[in-house]
Automatic annotation (TrEMBL), chain B:
Pfam families registered for this protein in UniProt: SBP_bac_1
Lineage: Bacteria, Bacillati, Actinomycetota, Actinomycetes, Streptosporangiales
SUPFAM superfamilies to which the protein is assigned, alphabetical: Periplasmic binding protein-like II
Protein name from the UniProt record: Extracellular solute-binding protein
Automatic annotation (TrEMBL), chain C:
Location of the protein in the cell: Cell membrane
Organism of origin: Actinomadura violacea
Name of the protein in question: Carbohydrate ABC transporter permease
Keyword match Cell membrane: yes
Keyword tRNA-binding: no
Gene3D superfamilies the record matches: MetI-like (1.10.3720.10)
């Protein structure tokens, strides 16, 4: 019987049979996954099935439902110009916002990484846009962005710059929505990438200096390979959240001007909760969920290629 | 290099902290609003009525509402109601967008509370089976002489009468579309009587340099923002949003003319950015002397006449809504409260409705700046002090003479949320994308195919 | 610690300028909101905006009288702490379990966990409402905390998975070879090393719960949280910007304190890759 001392305590190996360690590992693993499995089964299965079922009905709050209509909601949606427009808008918004956030976040993470520890207050301050309550901050943005009453255009006017109607034309409105999302969520990306950069082994960096590698070479061959999983993580989370973006659109534009910022989630909300077309609204939501699932699957493939330590 | 892994004491501390959390969760704190009450000793005005106020004593009512001037004016009297009836009222107030997002979930979930609630879309609520019919209560549990229905605006009574004549709610506020102007900037108020005159006055005020823009109008593309003022233009030009036959009518030539006029004025005399403007922005524009005029609900008088908020409070006057070919049909609105069909306290809820909408109830609410749908309330001196005498008279005139038919046909329609939304987006796109009114409204009509 | 990209003096100046611009851009809107809370009502929306003004606490007084701030904050705190604790506990265990699972099943399970974050809130509002209504749990801290757990569990678990992947297997393997049990190896070796990552995930979870709005609105009525309470100031024809700004500033303080206090974990702790080698 083997007896070992670890940290002042002694263990006896229960049996010397081969494979017992693996069996114990499997048992432990199963045990550890149980709380999560219970949680997910209890709380996510019902709502998902309910939404799916709802999307196959004609249900409204008025109870004038004809019941099960099969895929009619979906065929109606695919034939609807409004939905195709919303789909396009959602795509544009997500791609633009995520790309800018990740690139900008990466750049700023580098800048912050080079600072000394005394600058922790600065780092905390830069996380504020994400830490502040979105609904309140968005109201602040609404007030700031007003072309004739807001402070932003006032400041631009002082320096003689053009004072655009930030939310007043279709293109400008979408651009502004992207800007506000970038403002609010780049700190999230910064946080993730700062962690990644801190774990970059110094020897590699120094070695590349010695080898005479330039700035760009170092970026490509040393930094990027190391932070790649975290970049993908950032893209994944931001992408999924941008697909669901709602608060900013509701507060700043209400989906306008016209329909120029009515994304899929806005459409789902309007159809379901405002017009009380529960069935149709559920169909839009299911569509959105499908997009997110596809995106998640694709993104995950980029993560799995990493070799684990 | 990392520090040493945390020692036992640290892990213990973290562990205790994590465990302590559930203990904290034992008591959720009540976040209901308790307002300081007013004098509750004199209940004669109510007890003199032939109503058994105490028939439901001991009950608890939940009142669901949006944050609204009516709530601000009414809630100080809740202790009075509690003393009168022995019924406890629990007030749950939300912001506007939040209220209309949450209530459909609550009501579709067949919840029994709130027992009484402010109805944001009457037709939709009735058709969804969310409101209790009130006819039997009105007939049996009432003192008609004391209640004085004659005092209530005709439009308010029409508003709540559903097809077939049943009443599902009672009106609690009244507002009409009027033009507010600054008498130090607009030299000739009489010219505001026609749409051409109104537009010209706005442009001239702008050109004079005294203000940066002529008029503040709402432009936000939702059914509760631009749709309301633009509808007044449609009605005055002889059009309907939904015609008496129940058909969509906002692409008729008259309606198109009305929308065209609204868009013209927005483009010619409104500040930049009006396409996202709702109540906050238009009142700010007037309060901060950015514009010469504000044309919207009479309730604006409360904000722009308030010396604590408005730089121009002393110069604000009200003029009647303009006319087109002698016809003026300003838009109206009445907020409604109703009883949840699944409430378990319907009788108690009815007592609340009775109390809040009675002549005496409305008088005291008016004294605190509420705008009840009764002539007596609007003639009340306290009310006129708060509201402003001249605006009150102008609004009262509009409310008494208004034609409520066009607005009732539209706003009380079960599908109004969808129709109003399509209409609003169409109007908005005329002055943001340069679409012609006709094509914008035609497109809205095609989007609403199959809705009616 | 110098930046991995190196560079000379000109680069340093460029870096300082870039960082300054970014800081101003990030903080100006926050500053603007905070200062709105200290202005008199008539100055809050002044055109042109007022930069210098005599500060007043009127808006704060309004915020405290118009809304039950203390109760709102306490509810928010309870929900956030509970949600964070539960999601960390469940996520931590699940992440470790998954990391030791080397088959393709791990990827599927991880995807399932991630998918909890994908559903648009609007879609699940009604079913969750019904779920909690039937269980008599509406308007309680527990229900909302549970909802928040579902909301953040995906993110927390994935961060923990990355954290564990960054820790070398060799340490546990050595312990196992020496006769240490699996659970003990986890508890005494891996867990302590993962604490920084745990705290990082915890701070993010706390912030997300603290600021969460939609489910708090739907699932609570008389016992609601601060973000919902904020909207008491945004009514129909009655927007009180000053009180809104004051309440938002009050809400910001705990969030800022937590970020400041834990930011070293937030920043460094999301991976323990420094342990490598």
């Amino acid at each position: 019987m083997a007896v070992t001392a670890v940290k002042g305590r002694t263990w006896r190996r229960r049996a010397d049979a081969p494979g017992s360690a693996e069996r114990e590992a499997v048992r432990l693993r199963r045990l550890m996954l149980t709380p999560m499995t219970v949680l997910l089964l209890a709380l996510t299965v019902f709502p998902t099935l309910y939404s799916l079922w709802l999307s196959l009905t004609d249900r409204t709050a008025a109870g004038e439902n004809t019941g099960f209509v099969g895929l009619r909601n979906y065929t109606d949606l695919f034939g609807s110009a409004q939905l195709r427009h919303a789909f396009w808008l959602t795509l544009v918004f997500c791609v633009a916002a995520v790309v800018v956030e990740v690139v900008l976040g990466f750049a700023i993470a580098h800048l912050l990484h080079g600072l000394r520890r005394e600058h922790r207050v600065l780092r905390a301050l830069l996380i504020l846009p994400m830490a502040a309550t979105p609904v309140a901050v968005l109201f602040g943005w609404k007030v700031m962005l007003d072309p004739s009453q807001g402070v932003l255009n006032y400041l631009l006017g002082l320096i003689g710059a053009p004072q655009p109607d930030w939310l007043g034309t279709p293109t400008a409105a979408m651009g502004t929505m992207i800007m506000v999302d970038v403002w609010m969520w780049t700190p999230f990306v910064i946080v993730i990438l700062l962690g990644a950069l801190s774990s970059l082994p110094q020897e590699l960096v120094e070695a590349s200096h010695v080898d005479g590698a330039g700035w760009f070479g170092r970026l490509r061959h040393v930094v990027l390979p190391h932070v790649r999983p975290f970049l993908v993580l950032a893209v994944l989370f931001r992408g999924i959240d941008c697909l669901k973006a709602f608060d900013a659109f509701q507060v700043l534009t209400a989906g306008g001007p016209g329909d120029a910022t009515t994304t899929l989630n806005m459409l789902a909300y309007r159809t379901g909760l405002q017009f009380l077309g529960f069935g149709k609204g559920a169909a839009v939501s299911v569509l959105l969920l499908a997009v997110a699932l596809v995106f998640g699957k694709v993104a995950m493939r980029f993560i799995r290629r990493e070799v684990r330590a | 290099m990392p520090k040493h892994p945390p020692d036992r004491r640290t892990v213990l501390r973290y562990g205790l902290a994590a465990l302590g959390a559930p203990l904290l969760a034992g008591c959720a704190q009540s976040t209901e609003i308790r307002v300081a009450g007013v004098d509750v000793t004199n209940l004669d005005a109510f007890t003199s009525a032939n109503i058994d106020w105490r028939s439901e004593q001991g009950a608890t009512l939940v009142l669901g509402a949006e944050q609204h001037p009516w709530i601000t004016a009414m809630s100080p009297y809740l202790p009075q109601f509690e003393k009168l009836t022995g019924i406890k009222v629990s007030l749950q107030v939300s912001g506007e967008d939040q209220y209309v997002a949450k209530m459909p979930v609550v009501l579709a979930g067949h919840n029994s509370t709130p027992d009484v609630y402010m109805v944001w879309s009457y037709g939709q609520a009735v058709q969804s089976g969310w409101l209790e019919p009130l006819d039997s209560y009105l007939a049996n549990a009432n003192d008609p002489a004391w209640y004085d229905e004659q005092d209530v605006f005709a439009s308010a009574k029409d508003y709540v009468r559903w097809r077939g004549g049943t009443t599902y709610g009672l009106a609690i506020t009244a507002e009409a579309q009027v033009t507010f102007y600054r008498d130090d900037v607009i030299p000739d108020p009489a010219a505001l009587g026609t749409f051409e005159g109104f537009q010209e006055a706005a442009v001239r005020a702008q050109e004079s340099g005294k203000v940066s823009a002529g008029v503040a109008l709402r432009g936000k593309p939702t059914g509760d923002a631009v749709a309301w003022p633009a509808a007044g233009y449609v009605f005055s030009h002889g059009g309907y949003l939904i015609d008496p036959g129940g058909r969509l009518a906002f692409d008729s030539p008259e309606a198109v003319a009305g929308v065209a006029r609204y868009a013209d004025i927005v483009k010619a005399a409104c500040p930049k950015g009006v396409s996202t403007w709702s109540w906050l922005e238009i009142t700010t524009a007037m309060q901060q002397a950015q514009v010469a005029m504000l044309q919207d609900s009479s309730n604006a008088a409360l904000d722009i006449g308030d010396h604590d908020k408005s730089r121009v409070a002393d110069h604000v006057r009200a003029a009647p809504f303009p006319a087109h070919n002698g016809v003026s049909k300003p838009n109206l609105y009445h907020w409604i409260i109703g009883i949840n069909k699944r409430s378990r306290q319907k009788k108690a809820a009815w007592l609340f409705l009775l109390w809040a909408t009675s002549r005496q109830g409305c008088t005291q609410i008016a004294a605190r700046g509420g705008t009840p749908p009764r002539v007596s309330a609007w003639q009340n001196t306290h009310f006129q002090e708060i509201f402003g005498r001249q605006p009150a008279e102008a609004a009262l005139k509009a409310l008494r003479s208004a034609d409520s038919k066009p607005v009732t046909l539209a706003w009380m329609h079960p599908k109004w949320p969808e129709i109003g939304d399509a209409f609003a987006r169409a109007v908005n796109s005329v002055f943001t994308s340069g679409t012609s009114p006709h094509s914008a409204l035609a497109e809205a009509r095609s989007r609403l195919k199959g809705v009616l | 610690m110098s930046s991995p990209l190196g560079g000379g003096r000109r680069a340093t100046i460029g870096r300082t300028v870039a960082l300054t611009v970014f800081t101003v851009w990030s903080l100006f809107p926050i500053y603007w909101i905070v200062q709105m809370g200290f202005k008199k009502s008539i100055d809050t929306t002044a055109i042109p905006p007022k930069w210098l003004f005599a500060p007043t606490l009127d808006a704060y007084r309004d915020a405290f009288t118009k809304a039950p701030m203390r109760a709102l904050l306490l509810n928010s705190l309870q929900v956030a702490v509970l949600a964070t604790a539960v999601s960390l506990a469940v996520g931590l265990l699940a992440a470790y379990g998954l990391v030791r699972l080397r088959t393709g099943r791990a990827a599927n399970y991880e995807f399932w966990v991630l998918s909890t974050r994908m559903a648009p809130p609007v879609a699940v509002a009604l079913p969750f409402y019904l779920l909690f209504q039937k269980s008599q749990l509406l308007d309680t801290v527990w229900a909302l905390a549970l909802m928040h757990v579902v909301m953040v569990i995906g993110m927390v678990t994935w961060i923990m998975i990355e954290t564990f992947h960054g820790l070398p297997q060799s340490l546990t393997e050595a312990a196992l070879v020496d006769g240490c049990g699996q659970w003990t190896a986890f508890r005494r070796i891996m867990l302590p090393l993962a604490v920084p990552g745990l705290v990082g995930a915890g701070v993010l979870a706390f912030l997300l719960s603290w600021n969460e709005f939609f489910f708090a609105l739907i699932l609570t009525s008389g016992h609601t949280t601060a973000p919902v309470g904020l909207f008491n100031f945004v009514g129909f024809q009655s927007v009180d910007l000053g009180a809104l700004a004051a309440a938002a500033t009050i809400l910001l303080i705990p969030a800022f304190v937590i970020v400041l206090g834990f930011q070293k974990f937030l920043v460094r702790g999301l991976t323990m890759g420094a342990v490598k080698g």
